[in-house]
Amino acid sequence: MVLAATTVMATLLLFAVKLWHRLVLAGREARTASYTAAVGDMISRGYIPSQIPRRWRTDPLFHSVLIDFRKLLTGVEVAYIDTLVERFGIVDALMPRIRQLFPPTSRLQAVATFVELADRKAAPLLISLLDDHQGFVRTYAAHGLARMDQVSSVPVILDLSNNVRPWEAGRLTDALVAFGPPAVAPIVSWIEAEVADNFSVDVVAQAARVLGLIGDPAAEPVLLDLLTRSSPKLRLAAASALARVGTDAATLPLLRAFTDESWEVRARAVRALATLADGSVGADVARLLSDPEWWVRQNAAESLAEIPGGKVHLLAAIDSTDRFAADAALNQLAELRMLPEGRTPTLSQPPGLQAAGRT
User: Residue 180, Cα to own-chain centre: how many angstroms?
Assistant: First the structure.
């Protein structure tokens, strides 16, 4: 009887918990729907009320609705959301939660909301948050500074990346991409100053990656310099970035990288060269079809499929006495549906399964 009673009590408790959870979710959905309708009505009518219910100012669901509208709207309608935020004192309402240390999840939510809704006047606070003890707060601050176009903070973010754990350094440097081309000059200056001293290879490589993602040719000179550095990681980052920002000036340095001791650099250099669409390099790229590493051969074949006149070299390679070159060419031609009649692709060996040596 005791066991039966305990089972019944546990069942009732579980039912009550599930019912409460459903009621909470239903309440959240209802509030979100009412907030969405209210803000949508304000925007459609161009109306800004003199005041709103006090709980709206501090309700994370109301903040989320404002953020969603801000991301969806453009032009003057975005400015309207900014006006709502300022008129309702949303940013001021977030400040107590940002300053409190506990609970951490509530504070992080407040910082994330602040980053999305605050205007440029809040930039000094975000800069101060770069010194926060919590890594996620620091990364939110960096992304907020990018949204506000505070380019002066770029060197500060890079310096911070030198002194944090790798995962955080990656997230901080990712934030720099959102600055766009205006960030190129300060990033280049920072890299040049770093490599002249005792520097962190990892962070400089991350900065080079960012330059590639931004895609501004103004970054090419510093990337070409990194392509000659002793660190394979820097050369790899530079070759990868040059695939997006390289010009004709990068052709010869990338060709030199075909003999790099690191196969990763050779593999990235040949793909970068393909983006320049220079048909004169076809013979040089074709020589990499005989590279000892599978990925280099694969990338060389893909590049020959893209550069002007490159397919001629692929067709010539299928009769090569080097079975590795013939293998790469046959499989690429099969991808292009250009195999000569009677020829079939071979089974290309993926990395990790290829033979240790060449015969």
Answer: 13
Tell me the C-alpha distance between 311 and 88, whole Å: 63
**For the segment 75-97, what is each residue's pLDDT rounded down to a tens digit?**
778 888 888 899 889 999 999 99
The predicted model scores a pTM of 0.83
Domains of the chain (ranges; CATH) run 31-118 (no CATH), 148-245 (1.25.10.10), 247-350 (1.25.10.10)
Cα(138)–Cα(148) distance, integer angstroms: 15
End-to-end Cα, the chain, rounded Å: 79
The per-residue pLDDT for range 212-226, each reduced to its tens digit, is 999 999 999 999 999
Place of tokens 């310096």: 159
* Alpha helix ranges (H) inside 46-149: 54-58, 60-72, 76-88, 90-99, 104-117, 123-129, 135-147
φ and ψ of 330, to 5 deg: -60, -45
Other beta carbons within 10 angstroms of residue 178's beta carbon come to 15
Tokens 């400089």 label which residue?
Answer: 204
